[in-house]
Amino acid sequence: MRTRRMTQVLVTATAASSLLVACSGAGGSTSSGGGGESINVLMVGNPQMEDIAKLTKDSFTKDTGIKVNFTILPENELRDKVTQDVATQAGQYDVATIGAYEVPIWEKNGWLHELSSYADKDAGFDKADLLKPMVTSLSGSDGKLYALPFYGESSFLMYNKDVMKAKGITVPERPTWQQIADIAAEVDGAEPGMRGICLRGLAGWGELGASLSTVVNTFGGTWFTKDWKAQVSSPEFKKATNFYVDLVRRHGEAGAAQAGFTECLNAMSQKKVAMWYDATSAAGSLEDANASKVAGHVGYAYAPTVQTKSSGWLWSWAWAMPKTTKKADAASKFMLWASSKKYEQLVGERLGWSRVPAGKRASTYEIPEYKKAAASFGDITLKSIEGADPADPGVQPRPTVGVQYVAIPEFQDLGTKVTQEISAAIAGKTSVDKALNDGQKLAEAVAKTYQ
User: Which one of 165, 190, 214, 248 has the lowest number of neighbouring Cβ atoms within 10 Å?
Assistant: First the structure.
């Protein structure tokens, strides 16, 4: 049965690393004793999640009496842990952050609670206010929501305006990748210890795989053709990957093979790099004067292109409720609060408006305080999200939806293994040709299942 095959693929791909996570003491929190209900929430360690962990006790818990036990993990570890827990129906967590990739696959497997009924009953939630790309990406085959967006994002280029001004460089609003490579070479070393650009090099389908896949798309490549022919070793895929690896090796951040979103955020905010291509959600952190040395000095441009009109990805970190939870009522209350207008207001008032988890609601972009705080990046973020086309992100038809991923359960394992080899190429331990030729064999094995 297909559900059983999907389960086996996901569990096999994650079992080893999940055991490592458990051994390192990163397992879920236990429910607290002493009155009041509690729920266990597993989430990715991004700044917006760290914010909600700080704010929950004195707001949500105070209002509802529901204690929330958070487990926060780095992105790759989070993906392994949540997949293992949900796929095996272990039931350790009542809520988990997942994304647009997992939702349609897990909904078909019957692993998730539908959430439309909860959202519809809560008048204050205002489901109609959610951006259509977010709703579409988080809905199941029945049209119902199976995850509630916490924040949404596309990808774009961020750059240090002071460095560009000093060099007499004007970054185009819609640059090409060759233009960005030329600028990276010119600003490399513009300040002591500063590199030209930060690009993810950390292995993982959602780390290096996300940013690289957008480059592959716009260079004319794809993971699979519409009729499931593997294309990992195709000329277009190789050209894109060689460009990416060469750029980061020549002008990228120190230790690039171990750098993901978090490391690049730190490098950009601490003036270690002059440019960074990554998630639009990073802008709020870069503009936080309490944590960023470049706040107020960052410029933003659309995702660089080659053959396509746009190339930004589409993603949402969202709250999902595994069917195994025995605390659906309490879990739904937390998720509705965490994705609400009320929570956005709380973040703005307590932590600063640039840190609002945006990209999911149309109304966010009409809040005067947010519009002021996000003046440099709000409009381009919204347009990038609205302009992303997961059904047609490249120059040829695709077998599934997805800009920076292929929406099949096997891609979690395939994407991670291929990016491990490409990351090794960034580190100088292998060649791009060998990495992609080996990846082609893995992709061909996956393709046979669907041909």
Answer: 165
SS3 353: helix
- pLDDT for residue 36: 76
Specify the pLDDT at position 212: 98
**Is the predicted pLDDT of residue 418 greater than 90, yes or no?**
yes
**265 neighbors 282 (Cβ within 8 angstroms):** yes
* DSSP character string of 324-335: T-S-HHHHHHHH
Residue pair 278/300 in contact (Cβ under 8 Å)? The answer is no
CA angle at 86 for the pair 104 and 72, rounded to the nearest 5°: 100
pTM of the predicted protein model:
0.88
pLDDT at res. 17: 35
Q: Which residues pair with 139 in a beta bridge?
A: 145
Taking every pair of Cα atoms in the chain, the longest distance, rounded to a whole number of angstroms, is 63
Tokens representing residue 359 in the block: 């990209």
d(CA 383, CA 150): 18
The phi and psi torsions of 149 (rounded to 5 degrees) equal -70, 130
CA–CA gap between residue 436 and residue 434 (Å, rounded):
6
Amino acid at 104: P
Asked if residues 369 and 355 have their Cβ atoms less than 8 Å apart, the reply is no
Q: Read off the tokens for 310.
A: 């746009």
